[in-house]
Structure formats: C-alpha cells, structure tokens
Design brief:
By secondary structure, the chain is α/β, with parallel strands linked by helices. The chain has 2 domains: about 130 residues, Aspartate Aminotransferase, domain 1, CATH 3.90.1150.10; about 240 residues, Aspartate Aminotransferase, domain 2 (3-Layer(aba) Sandwich). Helices cover about 40% and strands about 15% of the residues. It is built from 12 helices and 13 strands. The strands form 3 sheets. A 7-stranded mixed sheet has the order 2-8-7-6-5-3-4, with helices on both faces. A 4-stranded antiparallel sheet has the order 9-10-13-12. Strand 5, helix 7 and strand 6 form a beta-alpha-beta unit. Helix 10 runs parallel beside helix 12. The chain starts with about 25 loop residues before the first helix and ends with a helix. It binds pyridoxal-5'-phosphate. The site of pyridoxal-5'-phosphate has 13 residues, from helix 4.
C-alpha cells in the first residue's frame, strides 16, 4: 500500500501544495484598509458605476427566469456577442459555437486553459513584474512559472531575458497586455517578437487582455491572435470585470481554436459549472448596446484619473511610472520609512489612510521593495480625497 501519511504519521495532513499558500498582499492590504476605514487604492476593485444597460439586462433576465445553469461555455447570446466583438475590434473570426467560451471571470479562463493544456512540471514563461494570480494559478496546478524580467524604466521587452527563460520544458508564454501592475502595453514589434518565439519553439501563448480598453496616449492594443501563425496557438483570455465595473459578477471569456475548446469546456464545467446565468445576459446587453463612444469615454475618464494620481504621487515625492495602459501606477517609494515594501505600504496606510500594495508582490523575492502600486479605478471624489491625503503626507 502506498505511503499516505504525513511526517507526523497522520493522514490528517495538508497537501504538498497547501503549506506554500499565503494570503496575497492585495487582500491583506484591503483587510488592513477596511479595519481603519481608509481609502483602498490597493485592490483593482473598480467601483465606478455599472453601465445602466448592463445592470438592467441582468435584472430583466433574473425577472424573466434566466436563473438556471447554462451551457458550461455560456449562453448563445453572449458567445455570439463576444464573437462579434472580436471581429469588430480585431478582425478575428471565431465560431461562436465552438471557439468562444464564457468563463467565471478571466481568472477561470486561465485556470481551465492551464488544466486542459499543461502537465505538472510544464514551464510557462511569465513576464516580471507579474500579476500574482497568474503565477499562483500555474503553481496550484503544479505547472512551473519561469520569469523573464521586463526592462525598466518603461518595462520594455528584454528579448534576451525571454530567450534565457526558455528550456526544453517550456510549453507556453503568458502575455498580459495592458499589464497589471506595470500598465505596460506591448508594442506591435514586441508582440511580434514574442509571437516569433512561440512559433520557433512551438509554444502556446496564453494572453490576458482584460485591460484592452484601458489604453492611453495613442497606445494601441495588439491582439496577439491576429499575428501570422498565432491564431491556432493563442488562448486569448479576457473579461468584463474591468470594462463594465463588475468585478463581483465573475464574467469573462476566452477565444481559441476549436481544437482546444472541448477540454477547456470540460474543466470549466467541473470547476465552475457555468458563469452566473442572468449576469451573462447583462453583459450580452452591454456588448449589444454600448457603442464605440462608451469604450472611448472609459479610456478618457481613466486617463484623467491617472493624471490626477500621478501628479499627487509626484508631489508626495513618490516618482510614478506613468503607464500607457491598465489602471495602476507603480511609484517609487524608496524615500518612505520602512525596510521592505510591505512595511512602507503599512506605514503609508497608517499615516494617510490610503492603502497601496507592496511592489514586492509583483516580483521574484528581493525585488520591488522600493515600489508601491496604486489603483486609480476609483470614483472621482474618493480618488481626489486620496490624492489630497497623499500630498500632505
Ligand atoms: N487579469 C488581470 C491582469 C487582473 O489585473 C485581474 C484583476 O485584477 C484579473 C485578471 C481578474 O479578472 P476577473 O475578475 O475577470 O477574474
């Protein structure tokens, strides 16, 4: 009989993975902020208003009885609306029935893609600074994240670092653009360089394009699946949490070649069953009814929020990296008291009531200790109050 007991001799033991789990800095700072009733610029919670058509679409669907399980890959209406959107925005042609899946958030999208396409021990190259959920989702499935640092100050692609991260065990690259926490937007040339490496080494590309509409100063979002040879190997992951300010609804999607969909659908069914039915209708209503001006206004509004927060951070002596995308700012906190970034973040919270996240949460150990990340997807009044408090700190 195989050995099933722990070192203490009992079967009542955690899995091998569990001791390595810990509360994320983002959640820890949110809890600390709530405790003192502070202003939370740590979590990307996005508490700006939900578009009225999206909200009404969900309420109407609930009242009309759309409250039962849906297909594990989502309702036809939403899959069709997503296929239309991919065609409209990027000229990408996906079959709504076989190549589009509605997921329980972008988080579930990466989870099921990794379950369906990676084996334990497979390596996935992740650019650093990284979004912690990417790294921890991979680890939770016993895949191995391998880091390729982006080059400061503007987080340019370092092609040598990317090449150095490749090994015979590499199965995929994960590309998050616009990126969290850096706001990095991969240029066409950079995206082509990443794509070429995928083609040369026969790799999957997992994308996270959730901030596709949060893009400033003339930067352009490149959907990697549009590049030559990339459609069949790109698992394009995105979602509506940010675009429609519905982080709690858990509606995302992935688009990919039909070859990969049945396995990903199976794991979505097993883990999530389906995304919430009436909320899928709300998002479909948004996709059907909101025109280009909505997405343009979203970028305009967030650019203005970025400007206000950047100016306050500069005034407070924390030199900001001004991002061309997403809705976070990494700011230089080297002059704040505290040896580590978590200490600096807690000191700033105690002094100002404004919560940020330690930069070290987005890097390998020993890095990011001089950085703090601030989220600017906040209602204007709250953001302005946070700016005021940072200025007088
Ligand atoms: N991907 C990135 C890069 C994010 O920053 C976040 C949230 O902060 C998510 C995914 C979460 O997306 P969802 O709410 O659709 O699971």
């Amino acid at each position: 009989m195989p050995e099933m007991t722990s070192a203490s001799g009992s079967r009542l033991a955690l899995s091998d993975l569990a001791p390595h789990t810990f509360q994320s800095e983002i959640r820890a700072m949110t809890t600390a902020c709530d405790r003192i009733g502070g202003i939370n610029l740590s979590q990307g919670v996005c508490d700006t208003p939900v578009p009225a058509v999206v909200e009404a679409g969900a309420i109407d669907a609930m009242r009309a009885g759309e409250n039962i399980y849906t297909r594990c890959d989502g309702i036809t209406r939403l899959r069709e609306a997503i296929a239309q959107k991919q065609l409209r925005d990027y000229g990408l042609n996906y079959d709504a029935d076989r190549e589009v899946m509605v997921t329980s958030g972008a988080t579930a999208g990466l989870h099921v893609a990794a379950m369906a396409l990676l084996n334990p021990g497979d390596e996935v190259v992740v650019f650093e600074p990284f979004y912690g959920y990417h790294v921890n989702t991979l680890k939770s499935l016993r895949a191995v994240p391998v880091f390729a640092g982006l080059a400061e100050p503007d987080w340019a692609l370092d092609i040598d670092a990317l090449r150095a991260a490749l090994t015979p065990k590499t199965k995929a690259i994960l590309l998050n653009s616009p990126g969290n926490p850096s706001g990095k937007v991969f240029t066409l040339a950079e995206t082509e360089a990443v794509a070429q490496i995928c083609l040369d080494h026969d790799l999957f590309l997992f994308t996270d394009e959730i901030y596709e509409y949060f893009i400033y100063d003339g930067a352009r979002h490149i959907a990697p699946a549009t590049l030559d040879g990339m459609r069949e190997r790109t698992i394009a992951i995105s979602g509506f949490s940010k675009t429609y300010s519905i982080t709690g609804w858990r509606i995302g999607y992935l688009t990919a070649d039909a070859r990969w969909m049945p396995a990903m659908g199976h794991f979505h069914d097993l883990t999530y069953v389906c995304a919430p039915a009436p909320l899928q209708h709300g998002v479909a209503a948004g996709l059907e009814q909101l025109g280009p001006e909505f997405y343009k206004q979203l970028a305009t509004d967030h650019r203005s929020k970025r400007e206000r927060l950047s100016a306050a951070l500069r005034d407070a002596g924390m030199d900001p990296h001004c991002p061309p995308g997403a809705y976070y700012i990494l700011a230089n906190a080297e002059h704040l008291p505290g040896k580590t970034a978590p200490e600096k973040a807690r000191m700033l919270l105690a002094r100002t009531g404004v919560a940020s996240v330690a930069g070290s949460a987005f890097f390998r150990p020993g890095r990011g200790e001089d950085l703090l990340r601030f989220c600017f997807a906040k209602k204007d009044a709250e953001l302005d109050e946070a700016c005021e408090r940072l200025r007088i700190s």
